[in-house]
Amino acid sequence: MLAFWLNLLSPPFLALWSSNPSDAELTPSMICLNSKTLEHLADCLEGFIPARGLYDRASYNAGQPDTSQRAAWSSIVSSLLDVDGSCSSIQVPPPLGRTIRWLTADRHVFRKGWGAMIVPERRVAVSRTIHISAPNPEFDVGTPSQAAYLFKATGTKSFLMAGRTRTAFLHPSPCISVTSQSGYYETDPAHNNREPFFDASLAIHTWQQRRGCPSSTCHSPTSKAWYLDSSDRPVKRLKGHLQLTIPAWSVSLPPDSSCVLTATRNVVGRYINGVPEHSVCQAGANPTEALGEFVHIEQDDLSRGAGSYEMWAGAIRRTFETSCAEGMSVDPDTGLCAFSRPRTVAYDPAFDSAIPALSQSARAQWLLWLSLLNVL
């Protein structure tokens, strides 16, 4: 499953890594940050996601972020959204300071489930103000690396990977309950409002509403009509471009599909579509309130394979118009925003030293929030 947030808005994140001298063994920081591409980085990080059935009640409760940590998590998400050129100025709130560390790769996983987020390090690297999520790492195999590729190939504002697989704790979700035995579990990021993925998503959306674009344009009748117009909703445009790009595929919307996975119980989707935070576990979204900002995509194995990445990217570039920074315009060859002539990039020494394998140009473009936490 992939999810797109489609509004005139945006979110950022930063790389955090441990300087703990006791972590001298082989660690995810040594393994994953030597990745040559963002999709390989995402694939590597997916390998440290807590696996199916890893938690019991005691270990889940011990690993679950407490109230102060969740509030601090939301706070740092918000503060990172304004970064444009330097990740070194961001301070980790005290409640998170004791939880951020790299884990030993051969024995440990990401316990607290913060996840990983990637954003352009500078505003000039943003071509389209959309957000891409991979909420089901390990369960929907390959979607984190697919989302990471689409993020960079379309000039998207941000990418978020959840920090737990949905089946890591096989206890029914206290938020969304269903009668079938194959229901939603407590570590399901899309169906439990106590997961860090939900906190991050709400912080991003709140920042978007406040800072993503001026209120005079964000909430104008014209802006809302862009989403509500039945002849030109983003999801319809994406469907059309995918079908033109890959005629052999069956690309459908709920009215003409037998697939029942339509995300009507997705707590992030409900919130974005107008359901109050305190009601996302009980109330579905009202179609008349949905603005078209949330697009949920279900895929088969072929669709999310590496051979399909560029076809997806092309369809997304044609679906969503660009939002270039001042002094930039769309390059007709790449579909991305570019300056008319090369510009010298100012590097951030802390960020450059964190990801040695990526090229300087790549390191200048992306910030990472890699939350790799306490030993189980």
TrEMBL record:
Keyword field: Signal
Signal peptide start and end residues: 1-24
Lineage: Eukaryota, Fungi, Dikarya, Basidiomycota, Agaricomycotina
Protein name: Uncharacterized protein
